[in-house]
Amino acid sequence: MRKTHWAMILLAGAVLFASQSYADSLTNFLQQGTWNGYLRDYYFTRNFTATGAPNNLKANSFGGMFNYLTPTFGNGFSVGGTFWSAQDLFGLNNETGNYSHLEPTLAGTQPIYTLGQAFVQWKGDNMLVRGGNQLMNTPWMGASDSRMVPATYQGVLADFTLTQGLDLIVAREFRWKSRTSSAFSATNLYNANGFANIYGGAANANVGTQTSDGTSTAGLTYKAGGLSAQAWYYKFYGLTGAAYADGSYVFNTGSGVSPVIGAQYLHESNSANNLLASSVNNSTYGVMAGINFSGDSLVASYNKISTSTGDFKNGGIVSPYSAGYATDPLYTTSMTAGLVEKGVGSAWKLAGTFFFVGKQLRLITSYARYNTEPNFANTNETDVDLTWFFSGSLKGFSVRNRLGIVHGLNGTFGAPNFGTFYFNRVMLEYDF
After folding, report:
1. Given CB 3.0 to 4.6 Å as the disulfide criterion, which of 108, 194, 294, 357 pairs with 93?
2. Strands of 194-281, DSSP E
């Protein structure tokens, strides 16, 4: 055999050996990463008692999440990704041959398959920088994870630890993915293109299908002892600027009973030529007080939005990533809605969290009253939230039932004519 043939064979063998070695090294590297996930099955029903109210609605959705983060490389770099899915299970939602009965905030007919997180990050001793698709858990731009799939954001986030307990967080978001969609877009909950009220949004006719440039935000968070505090500024491009602060303090008495107090404040100012075609001037404050005892808690809270006649919703809150979702940080927000959705006025709420059976059974219950006339009908909401956390061989599995009962939706002062509104959510989840 000629020398050139031997050289080619040796070269091919070297390439094959190097490729196999590289594949083995890559496999070993990826096996050192961390992963977790869950499976979910949710069944939601909405029932209305008023004559002429919309049809009662229901839907079932099955899906899950798989999250993976590589080990670090290159002095602190890593790559992460999270895949979510949600879909009808065995055609359960098509029991009548049509979908007129469908509860639209679950993936009942249109499945969701999305790489909601896909990012590169660098982490040092006192700094984290992440770019790409990601969760952003800030007060007014968060995951809103009360459906099958959370909201995620496309942008850059940096977290600087300035000193023990004190962090500076800055973020620039360009596009987002709602909890009922698979794709990212330069929209928010005020857009009419697919995020109307029935999907849990708050579509605004003036915004329509106009896109925006996203959001910039910066915040300081502090936690030491019994004190927790944060202060944020948001620039919601094309909508408004918002300054927000809240803080709470837990008094450690050493007796097993610890009082807690807190306060919050939001101010939003006008943004020139905003998409809402309406000036913005909002001032909202809140206070809370309660007690923690043996892992349980009981809290009373109050919020008020000042009237500013002629401005957006007469002084209402502009919240592009929570309006209609009822996932904002106000103390008095309930399961189905809060002052962001209802508008100017005041609200008070009494809420308790209690554990039983060695903390396997959790009860969260609340009663809230909303005094919002004449901008919106006065309403009240009672919420009962029960969760059983399994142990032993079924550890990681939980069964949760959330029930919200709303009175006062009688068709007056801009409220829909629902009569008494019952919203029930059966939520099965297995975490692994």
Report:
1. 108
2. 215-224, 227-236, 240-250, 257-270
Rounded Cα distance between 94 and 102, Å, is 9
Residue 179 backbone class (left: φ over 0; alpha: ψ -120 to 50; beta: rest)? alpha
Q: Residue 197 pLDDT more than 50?
A: no
The percent helix, strand, coil of the chain (3-state, each to 5) is 10, 50, 40
User: Which of 124, 118, 132 minimizes the C-alpha distance to 72?
Assistant: 124
Torsional class of 213: left (φ above 0), alpha (ψ -120 to 50), beta (otherwise): alpha
Residue linked to tokens 């999305």 = 114
What single-letter DSSP state applies at residue 197? Answer: G
DSSP state of 29: H
Residue in the structure block whose two tokens are 């209802």: 342
Looking at the DSSP bridge assignments, the partners of residue 67 are 36, 82
The 10s digit of each residue's pLDDT in 30-83 is: 788 899 999 999 999 999 999 888 889 999 999 999 999 999 998 999 999 999
Cβ-based burial of 302 (10 A; exposed 0-12, middle 13-18, buried ≥19): middle
Residue 24, phi then psi, degrees to nearest 5: -65, -40
pTM over 0.85: yes
Closest CA to 110 of 156, 178, 54, 50: 178
